[in-house]
Design a protein that fits this description.
Shape: globular
Strand content: 5-15%
Strand order of the largest sheet: 1-2
Distance between the termini: 28 Å
Length: 157
């Protein structure tokens, strides 16, 4: 499937060769990630995103425009036919493992033992298991067993 078209020239990216930097340029601020989180949880309207996040209207409008322009969200006519609402695109849905990993990191590192917090469950009500990245051979991979091969052969983390 082709990538969504973007209007951002490569010179506008913080680090045009780094996928992490490009992703952070697009979705790396608090409000963008919270909008995406809420879209995954069923939010659709501007009012609903504003109510759930508490973000200022001008900032929300900016983030919704940016996420729509870059193909993370799409606007559709609401069932009432009177307003537009926002839905995740395939690119937006592909951020699910990112949010899941961030959620699980937050559960592990930002709460005291026994401190209550929301829980992500599957369609059967079972807690979603902790994500563990694996390599092509099925072995766990981590910061000690991987490296980045940059363009031009240079290695970098």
């Amino acid at each position: 499937m082709p990538r969504p078209a973007t209007s951002t020239p490569s010179s506008a990216w913080t680090d045009s060769d780094c996928p992490v930097a490009r992703a952070l340029d697009l979705v790396g601020d608090r409000w963008s990630l919270l909008v995406i989180r809420d879209a995954m949880d069923g939010a659709r309207s501007f009012t609903e995103f504003q109510r759930r996040t508490g973000v200022a209207r001008n900032i929300l409008a900016d983030r919704l425009r940016k996420l729509t322009a870059h193909g993370v969200l799409a606007q559709q006519t609401a069932p009432s036919g009177r307003r537009q609402h926002y839905v995740l695109t395939d690119a937006g849905r592909d951020l699910f493992p990112v949010l899941l990993t961030l959620r699980q990191w937050g559960e592990q590192h930002t709460f005291e033992p026994g401190e209550p917090h929301s829980t992500l469950v599957d369609q059967h009500g079972a807690r979603v298991p902790h994500m563990k990245p694996t390599g092509a051979d099925g072995a766990l991979v981590d910061v000690d067993t991987t490296h980045v091969q940059k363009t031009g052969g240079e290695e970098h983390r």
